């Protein structure tokens, strides 16, 4: 239940050192050298909403690389595709969030010598309600909704994570020019998302073509647990990749 969720009273009161110990000191404390105080100025810039087991953030590499080949991209998540960016997953289910958290700690432990995976973390949170406690206006550069729950029944549509009023929230947290990515294999949900995103004044659809070279496109289609499941089931029906850019937002 929501009452067991922990969240700060506002974004500036969030103790990010628990999530990104390499980048933040405890609230109120400061790193005392210049390089480290730059790190403290970092903010979470990518949010994976309803991240599930956190495959988009990072995974144990499933490919055994015996002979490294420059032409094959073995990157498996946001952590190593965007090593300079802090990415946060938000997940409602306690057990799933706990699993993803432990996985990230294990990845960090396994990669201690390189410091990899220090840039990803997860919070257990109801993203429909609590984003304002974690993020400031214009903070996010990318927000992901991968294979969100379809909530088929009409009476349940209010639980869909993409809806007119929630889109206004997402636009608020996205920087101007920030990107919203969503993928689904459910045709009905795809149409719903297109409708609400197209009608929203703060978002503009951008073509798949214009995202050529954007490494995130490959990741959103292939890295999350749900996307792998759809692939395993022979589904070429990940028809729902949609990209929207956030437009100017009045203060
Ligand atoms: N994105 C992941 C993937 O592609 O593998 C998980 C997809 S799963 C079908 C949808 C996830 O969204 C579930 O893990 C669910 O618990 C989570 N979720 C649903 N509503 C949520 C909310 N309001 N806040 C945070 N997570 C939510």
Task: Explain how this protein is built.
This protein has 251 residues and is an alpha/beta fold. It has one domain (42-61, 73-246): Vaccinia Virus protein VP39 (Rossmann fold, 3-Layer(aba) Sandwich), CATH 3.40.50.150. It is 30% helix and 17% strand. The chain is built from eight helices and seven strands, in the order H-E-H-E-H-E-H-E-H-E-H-E-H-H-E. The radius of gyration is 18 Å and the shape is globular. The two termini are 34 Å apart. Bound molecules: S-adenosylmethionine. S-adenosylmethionine (SAM) binds at residues 50-52, 55, 90-93, 96, 126-128, 146-149, 161, 224-227.
What is the gist of this entry?
This protein has helices spanning 34-40, 78-81, 94-110, 127-134, 164-173, 187-199, 215-222, 225-232, and strands at 44-49, 86-91, 120-124, 140-146, 174-183, 203-205, 242-246.
Keywords:
single chain, 251 residues, alpha/beta, Rossmann fold, 7-stranded mixed sheet, 8 helices, 7 strands, binds S-adenosylmethionine
């Amino acid at each position: 239940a929501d009452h067991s969720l922990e969240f700060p009273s506002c974004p500036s009161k969030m103790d990010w050192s628990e999530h990104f110990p390499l980048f933040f000191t405890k609230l109120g404390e400061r790193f005392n050298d210049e390089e480290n105080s730059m790190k403290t100025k970092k903010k979470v810039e990518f949010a994976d909403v309803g991240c599930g087991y956190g495959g988009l953030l990072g995974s144990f590499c499933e490919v055994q690389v015996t002979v490294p080949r420059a032409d094959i991209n073995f990157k498996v998540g946001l952590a190593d595709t965007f090593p300079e960016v802090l990415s946060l997953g938000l997940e409602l289910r306690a057990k799933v969030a706990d699993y993803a958290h432990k996985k990230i700690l294990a990845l960090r432990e396994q990669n201690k010598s390189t410091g990899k995976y220090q840039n990803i973390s997860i919070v257990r949170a109801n993203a429909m309600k609590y984003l304002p406690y974690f993020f400031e206006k214009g903070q996010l550069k990318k927000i992901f909704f991968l294979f969100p729950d379809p909530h088929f029944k009409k009476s349940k549509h209010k639980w869909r994570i993409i809806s007119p009023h929630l889109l206004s929230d997402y636009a608020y947290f996205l920087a101007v020019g920030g990107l919203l990515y969503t993928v689904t294999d459910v045709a009905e949900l795809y149409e719903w998302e297109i409708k609400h995103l197209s009608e929203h004044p703060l978002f503009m659809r951008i073509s798949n073509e214009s995202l050529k070279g954007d490494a995130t496109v490959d990741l959103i289609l292939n890295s999350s647990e749900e996307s792998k499941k759809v692939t395993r089931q022979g589904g070429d029906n990940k028809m729902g990749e949609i990209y929207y850019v956030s437009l100017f937002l009045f203060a």
